[in-house]
Design brief:
It is a single chain. With 282 residues, this protein is an alpha+beta fold. It has a single domain, classed as Metallo-beta-lactamase, Chain A, CATH 3.60.15.10. It has helices at residues 32-35, 84-90, 131-137, 146-149, 154-157, 159-162, 217-222, 232-249; strands at residues 2-3, 6-18, 49-60, 63-67, 79-80, 100-102, 115-116, 119-120, 126-130, 170-173, 178-180, 183-187, 196-202, 205-211, 253-255, 263-268, 276-281. The chain is globular, with a radius of gyration of 18 Å. 43% of the residues are buried. The structure holds zinc ion (ZN).
């Protein structure tokens, strides 16, 4: 994807295959009929939703920015990871070249390559995190949520452990800050206390990195209620706000887990309950 001077490449680290029945709840959980428009994104053998895990690399001017750092090595099921470093080198980018790492939020599948075996993996990078997520997840006494317990090795995956080798390079930001030229951190709390959408602007062009605002196309188009959201009301409000903007503007966007980390846009479609449909863009 090209946005003005910004070259943005998806880096696939791994994936999580998830039973779609457990993903969404709320007052109106999606039915098989609701999933039907998105069947092409389900595993044809198991019917599971495939959530790709990885990063976006944003290169412009003298900046080499990594958005999230994937899962890392030796993940516990249903997560797997490990591809990120090869994906970087495939673009002729070394971990040493990364100037900035920016985080959508601090869940386990977004912070994995921050450090490995107690050493910084991007030793020259500034580490940029929303203040609220840092204050929520970084205390050593952080209490894991139920879904986190089964997938977390405490001596490796906790935020306090993962970020210890880079603690001296952390720069906290607030929602609304322009954290780098042309990259603005936008308020999108709900999935986590400080979950962030990034707005990329260059030469009059724009795109949004949605992070975990949504995990599937249906969640965005129909505002499905994800079981893992920390604040369900805020999360749904945020989805509806960004859905309106994306539909009104036709801006390209990428989420952190859409299959293949493809970019997409929202278009008019009278056949769907919301009148909106998702389509991929190059
Ligand atoms: Zn995630």
């Amino acid at each position: 994807m090209q946005i003005g001077d910004m070259r943005i490449d998806a880096l696939i680290d791994g994936e999580a295959a998830l039973d779609k029945e457990g993903l969404y709840g709320g007052v109106n959980p999606p039915t098989e009929e609701d999933w039907a428009p998105y069947a092409r994104y389900l595993d044809p053998c198991t019917g599971q939703q495939i959530n790709t895990i990885g990063s976006y690399l944003i290169r412009y001017r003298d900046k080499v920015v990594l958005h999230d750092t994937g899962m890392g090595l030796d993940a516990l099921p249903p997560f797997n990871g490990g591809g990120l470093r090869s994906a970087l080198w495939a673009l002729d980018v070394s971990p040493l070249d990364i100037t900035d790492v920016v985080y959508s939020h601090l869940h386990i599948d977004h912070i994995g390559w921050t450090s490995q075996a107690g050493k910084a993996y991007f030793p020259n990078a500034a580490i940029r995190i929303d203040r609220r997520d840092w204050e929520h997840y970084s205390p050593t006494g952080y209490q894991l949520e139920e879904w986190e317990v089964a997938v977390t090795k405490a001596d490796r995956d906790l935020v306090s452990v993962r970020f210890a080798p880079v603690a001296h390079r952390i720069e906290l930001f607030e929602a609304g800050d322009e954290i780098l030229p042309g990259i603005v951190a936008l308020e999108a709390a709900g999935h986590t206390p400080g979950h962030t959408v990034f707005e990329l602007t260059s030469r009059g062009e724009q795109g949004l990195l949605l992070g975990d605002l949504v995990h599937t196309q249906g969640e965005l188009v129909e505002a499905w209620d994800l079981a893992f959201n920390q604040d369900h009301g805020k999360a749904i409000e945020a989805i509806e706000r960004y859905r309106r903007r994306l539909y009104d503007t036709g801006l390209p966007f990428a989420a952190a887990h859409f299959p293949g980390l493809k970019w997409g846009r929202l278009v008019k479609d009278g056949a769907t309950p919301s009148g909106i449909a998702y389509e991929t863009v190059r």
